UniProtKB/TrEMBL annotation:
It comes from Noccaea caerulescens (Alpine penny-cress). Keywords: Repeat. Belongs to the PPR family. P subfamily. The lineage of its organism: Eukaryota, Viridiplantae, Streptophyta, Embryophyta, Tracheophyta. This is Pentatricopeptide repeat-containing protein. It comes from the Eukaryota. PANTHER family: MEMBRANE-ASSOCIATED SALT-INDUCIBLE PROTEIN-LIKE, PENTACOTRIPEPTIDE-REPEAT REGION OF PRORP DOMAIN-CONTAINING PROTEIN. PPR repeats lie at residues 154-188, 189-223, 292-326. InterPro entries: PPR-containing_protein (IPR050667), PPR_rpt (IPR002885), TPR-like_helical_dom_sf (IPR011990).
Length: 329
């Protein structure tokens, strides 16, 4: 039995609702916002001369956020501006995290508080800041934060961390965290498992891919998992196996996706199997998935290279008839 058949059962695909981030969810920006004018230092000081206790955490957080953006050396003046305010209060830190649009500024403030106060960060604040760093895709900063604080994030944050690491190409680190989750008795979600596998594919760690895939016997096989399998088969030289797997997906009524089509087309071009390549190309277009310009070039060049100009010309005309007109080729 082939590797693709032994590791995969197509009937395990379930038509379930995938948990994705809402398209309107805002990701914290890492861009520093510019301002036309700075806050008036005298006005800011007036809030700290005996009346700081009356200022709400929310208002104070907004004021501090503005100061951090406008002053290059805010660390040297913040305490003197607000002598009676306790910047080490966890409640204030959480408000600052909410009001600060640049999470790296909040991380900067966190380090400043830790170095200037007798401050022991509470688990809630640590988890909030770590999660904000992950939301902002500041993976390296999140990794450094985790290493320096040594705290244990919530399980859901660790799973998000695995996804971010693998997406950023830090696959070995992602696998380590994934393994730690399993050792602690956590069953990683399907999405987390898939992110690890996809990371292995992108990093060309195929041996590790198949090892991990064997271990994921309890994890559901969904469409994203199948896409990873097809890509791994193609990269491992088992292109025909990947093609057969794609056919099974199509028979189930699923669209295997743009990445799978292009991976198979490229793989068949390399082994000069232009009949299968042509089949995939037309299937792709039937699903309203058009090849990229690079893939299109690869197809035409391959056909001409193998002295099949007529086939190349037929494909060219067929694509134009279907509304895809790459006239710049």
């Amino acid at each position: 039995m082939s590797r693709g058949q032994s590791y995969f059962i197509i009937t395990l695909i379930r038509n379930r609702t995938r948990q994705n981030h809402h398209p309107n969810t805002q990701i914290r920006s890492l861009t520093i916002e510019s301002r036309d004018s700075e806050s008036n230092p005298e006005e800011l000081k007036s809030a700290g001369d005996g009346t700081a206790s009356a200022v709400s955490y929310s208002e104070m957080a907004k004021t501090v956020s503005a100061i951090m953006k406008e002053r290059q050396r805010w660390q040297q003046t913040l305490v003197s501006d607000f002598p009676s305010f306790n910047f080490a209060d966890p409640l204030f830190f959480r408000e600052l995290l909410k009001s600060q649009h640049n999470v790296l500024f909040t991380l900067w403030f966190f380090r400043w508080v830790c170095s200037n106060y007798d401050y022991t960060p509470d688990p809630v604040s640590l988890n909030l800041l770590f999660g904000a760093l992950l939301d902002a895709k500041a993976v390296k900063a999140a990794k450094s934060f985790l290493e320096t604080t040594g705290f244990n994030p919530e399980t859901k944050l660790l799973e998000q961390y695995v996804k971010c690491l693998c997406k950023e190409g830090l696959v070995d680190e992602g696998i380590q965290v994934y393994t730690l989750l399993k050792e602690n008795g956590t069953k990683p979600s399907v999405a987390t498992c898939n992110s690890v596998l996809l990371g292995c594919v992108k990093a060309r760690k195929l041996d590790r891919f198949w090892e991990l895939h064997k271990e994921m016997t309890e994890s559901e096989v969904d469409l994203e998992r199948i896409q990873c399998l097809i890509q791994a088969l193609c990269d491992g030289g088992e292109v025909s196996e990947g093609y057969e797997l794609m056919k099974k997906v199509l028979k189930q009524g699923y669209d295997p996706g743009h990445v799978v089509y292009e991976k198979l087309i490229s793989a068949f071009c390399k082994i000069e199997n232009y009949a299968s390549m042509s089949e995939i190309l037309h299937t792709m277009i039937a699903w309203n998935r058009f090849p990229s310009l690079n893939t299109y070039h690869e197809i035409i060049r391959g056909l001409f290279k193998n002295k099949k100009p007529q086939e190349a010309y037929c494909i060219f005309n067929s694509l134009k008839e279907k509304g895809y007109a790459p006239d710049i080729v």
